[in-house]
Each structure stands twice: as C-alpha cells, then as structure tokens.
Specification:
Strand order of the largest sheet: 1-2
Order of helices and strands: EEHH
Oligomer: single chain
Shape: elongated
Low-confidence stretches: none
Mean pLDDT: 75
Number of strands: 2
Bound molecules: zinc ion
Strand content: 5-15%
C-alpha cells in the first residue's frame, strides 16, 4: 500500500516454481489474467500444504497444470 508501488509490479510468488508474477486480484485490477483461462480442476483442494491450497499460480504453471490435468483426464479410461 505504499504510494511508490508501481503499476504492474509483481504481487505474488508462484507456490509451484517460485516465480514472481502479478495477480490482478492482489493488484486491485478489475480482472485477473487468470479469469481468461479455464478453471483449474483440482481433485483435492482440502489437503493442507497441497499446491491446490494456493489458488494463484504464475501463468506458466497455470498453463502447465491445465495441460497436465487435461492429459490426465484424457488418459483415464
Ligand atoms: Zn509458477
């Protein structure tokens, strides 16, 4: 909340890879970039300490997780 905060400054650290990225929700934007992506279907969101407990991933990881989940889904019988 400092007056010197740059617009576009990174707000979050990705829990998966540790990359710094900007979350629109955190930054106070009208909409986060993640809103344009499909919701990530996470099977287990209740486990403490699980990656799923953290809702914000960097763009790269979110894409990777989405791809992964689609692979898993299409590979299932
Ligand atoms: Zn990441």
């Amino acid at each position: 909340m400092s007056p010197g905060t740059e617009a576009g400054a990174d707000t979050n650290t990705c829990p998966r890879c540790g990359a710094r990225f900007r979350c629109g929700m955190e930054a106070g934007d009208h909409e986060c970039w993640c809103a344009s992506l499909p919701a990530l279907p996470l099977p287990d969101t209740s486990g403490p300490g699980s990656l799923a407990a953290a809702s914000c991933f960097c763009p790269l990881c979110l894409h990777a997780l989405l791809l992964q989940s689609e692979v898993v889904r299409s590979a299932a019988p």
